[in-house]
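Reminder: ligand-aware prediction takes two inputs, not one.
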Amino acid sequence: MSESVSGRRVWVTGHRGMLGAAMVRRLEGTGAELLLAGRSELDLTRQSDVYKWAKENKPELVFHIGAKVGGIHANATLPGDFLRENLLIQTNVMDAAFQAGVKKLVFVASNCTYPTRAELPIKESSQLTGALDESIRSYAISKIAGIEMCRAYKLQYGADFVAVIPPNLYGPGDNYHPEHSHVVAGILRRVHEAKISGAESFVVWGDGTPRRELLHVDDLADAMLHLMNRQTDWLYNIGYGTDLAISEIAALVAEVVGYKGAIVYDKSKPNGTMKKLLDSSRINQLGWFAKKDPKLGLKEAYADFLSQLNQPERSRLG
Ligand SMILES: NC(=O)c1ccc[n+]([C@@H]2O[C@H](COP(=O)([O-])OP(=O)(O)OC[C@H]3O[C@@H](n4cnc5c(N)ncnc54)[C@H](OP(=O)(O)O)[C@@H]3O)[C@@H](O)[C@H]2O)c1
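Here is what comes back for the chain with NAP:
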């Protein structure tokens, strides 16, 4: 079904995170009545609390965004936490929403749910066709279970649940923690620190040739609203459409930050998956295309990083 958000009770989980905050920004002015509960009011891992909250607050539409999120280091050291917390959170939210009679739910998965050797560009049909990246396997399996829940609830109960698969996200509100950040936030922080300390060079892991597709969070929030407003299937890739080599990302970030030193590649460190470009033709056929050019988007991300430095109370610098 297609569901307009105007005048509807819309639950956004994880609204204080990077994507959740972008979703709230995107919903401003749409006439949606927002239902927001941060972790201190509602811990999404607590089953009975989540069911009680959904019963009392009667959401009609849900953007399920809240999850335990982290970079390679966090995933390598805390795989049990990633698996347990994400399975609990998404099972609680999706079933409580279903029991409360929610009309439509959009769930955010991740591109790490695709096999490392999926054919490029990666189509939705590549799900469950091969082995996953070992370094992020527990998180990926939790997200695969969430995608399957959308499919299974649609099949068995006719629930209008749809999962979306974004590539690497970046934008305002990102997490710049030295051990928990993703690729763009990590590079941005280290380039900024190199500039401030006057370092002659800045080190990037690997040889710089792996390619990554970057999507600004505002684009993803816009795509999720687009899907909420339309009749949909249960799984969509949501990408920018082109990817950049890590060396190009590092050069762009250096330009945006104003860092004049050299970029040095530490080839003794692993490259990771060489290419992950998503095939986003299914959502493109529904009339949605990403808009934010990475250079412009990175300028905004850097402005946000600088404002986090100046506002320790909202900072995610670690
Ligand atoms: N960032 C990426 O590159 C990327 C890529 C692909 C997919 N995704 C997916 O996109 C979604 C949003 O990611 P993000 O980057 O915006 O992450 P984020 O900034 O870390 O935000 C996650 C949000 O979830 C909340 N949360 C976590 N555990 C919770 C719990 N037990 N109870 C209540 N709230 C809880 C967090 O609350 P606190 O603020 O209290 O911690 C935070 O508000 C996630 O589902 C993630 O898997 C992200």
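The chain has ten helices and twelve strands. The longest helix spans residues 79-99. We will return to this case in the review session.
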